[in-house]
Amino acid sequence: MSTGKTGTRYDEDFKRTLVNLYQSRGKTQVALCKEYGVCSSA
User: Fold this and answer.
1) Could you tell me which of 13, 18, 20, 25 has the C-alpha nearest to residue 42?
2) Whole-angstrom distance, CA of residue 42 vs CA of residue 37
3) Residues 6+ apart with CB under 8 A from 35
4) Whole-number Å distance between alpha carbons of 18 and 5
5) CA 29, CA 33: separation in Å to the nearest integer?
6) What is the largest CA-CA distance in the chain?
7) Pick from 11, 8, 12, 33: which is nearest to 22 by CA?
8) Model confidence band, residue 5 (pLDDT cutoffs 50, 70, 90)
9) SS3 of 35, please?
10) How far is 6 from 28, CA to CA, in rounded Å?
11) For residue 27, pLDDT beyond 60
12) pTM for this one?
């Protein structure tokens, strides 16, 4: 992850991990956002 003028950038591995948790483990978007500090609009 890196930050800049346009906000935080997440690498592909991080994104895949969150999608996997959402799809296979039944974690909600809200729970994942809180746990990993990601804005819900990301």
Assistant:
1) 18
2) 11
3) 27
4) 24
5) 6
6) 34
7) 33
8) low
9) helix
10) 26
11) yes
12) 0.65
